Amino acid sequence: MPARPTKQLHQCSLCGRKGHNVLRCEAPGAARYRKLLAIYKDDQRLNSKQTGRKGKTRPRRQKFGDRKNKAKDTYSGKRKRLQDDKVRREKRRKQEHLKGDEQNAVKELQKIGFLKAPQRCPFCKRYNLNEADNKGKTVEYRCKWAYCRKRITALNHSYGLPQSLGRGLSATGLLVAIRSYCAATKCVSPLAVAQTIGCSEKPIARLYTCLREMEAKAGAELNYSMRLRKEVELDGHKVRTAWVSKKTTKFLPQAKCQKAKNFILHYGLEPCLVYLPVGILTTQGMFRT
């Protein structure tokens, strides 16, 4: 049979003996140690944050004064995000819609090339569109065919711009946004333009994104079409090798030296690789930029 487990004995933390604890210890200085331990526990109990029910640290609801603002700033509860969103919405609130002649704005946009005048109805494919009545901030075209009679928004026929601009922008607002983008030295904030026009920030941000994409595409096409015609001075401080033609006359000595070192290049497997000295090089413009 297994041995019977022995009874767990107390061990004094003061003298180290078993059979009693510090409360029943009779060693010299045990009474003074128990007194100091009681004082320490009382001090910890008074400084504890969990003694009793905690009082309200946030002042009661105020309707005016600095106390209310201070309470808002110091509050960090569950509704903190809702309060911050309320303040943020007040700052980003839409202003009064910019008023203007929408028909003249559409004609101006068509003149500068951002909008195109539709010639046929996209639904029935007939050449019988008529300018409809101006309703609010939209300029529409209407099909004259009796079985169609569809309305078409003028802002949805644009060159390179989003097809959904007619939903969030008026013609006057679109014209002002394009002019503010083209007149500034650097792109203005979409929020500031939206507050000036009186619309939300999202259509302005989409418009500016499309304008930047159009600029990048036009710049890439222009860069690809340009060629260097005359001699160009190149900075060759970091140039160590350059690919040249086999029939070169500018670097003929270097090409001959390279061919003598690497005779396999005579078979036309690779073009000549010439090592250039460090410094300024002058060569004929024959590369795309």
What is the fold's blueprint, element by element?
Blueprint: H1 30-47, H2 66-74, H3 80-91, H4 102-112, E1 129-131, E2 140-143, E3 151-153, H5 165-168, H6 171-183, H7 190-197, H8 201-225, E4 231-236, E5 241-244, H9 252-261, E6 272-275, E7 279-284
Antiparallel strand pairs: 1-2, 2-3, 4-7, 5-6
Helix pairs in contact: 7-8
- Secondary-structure-based class equals alpha+beta
Beta-strand percentage range: 5-15%
One letter per element, helices H and strands E, the order comes to HHHHEEEHHHHEEHEE
Number of helices: 9
C-alpha Rg, in Å? Answer: 42 Å
Q: How would a crystallographer describe the biggest sheet? A: 3 strands, antiparallel
**Strand numbers in spatial order across the main sheet:** 1-2-3
Average of the residue pLDDT scores: 74
Region (Disordered): 44-102
Biased composition (Basic and acidic residues): 63-88
Biased composition (Basic residues): 51-62
Describe this structure in words.
Residues 44-102 are annotated as: Disordered. By secondary structure, the protein is an alpha+beta fold. Among the domains are: 102-224, no CATH class; 231-284, no CATH class. The protein has nine helices and seven strands, in the order H-H-H-H-E-E-E-H-H-H-H-E-E-H-E-E. The chain has helices spanning 30-47, 66-74, 80-91, 102-112, 165-168, 171-183, 190-197, 201-225, 252-261; strands at 129-131, 140-143, 151-153, 231-236, 241-244, 272-275, 279-284. The strands form three sheets. It has a three-stranded antiparallel sheet with strand order 1-2-3, with no helix packed on it. The model is unreliable at 285-289 (pLDDT under 50).
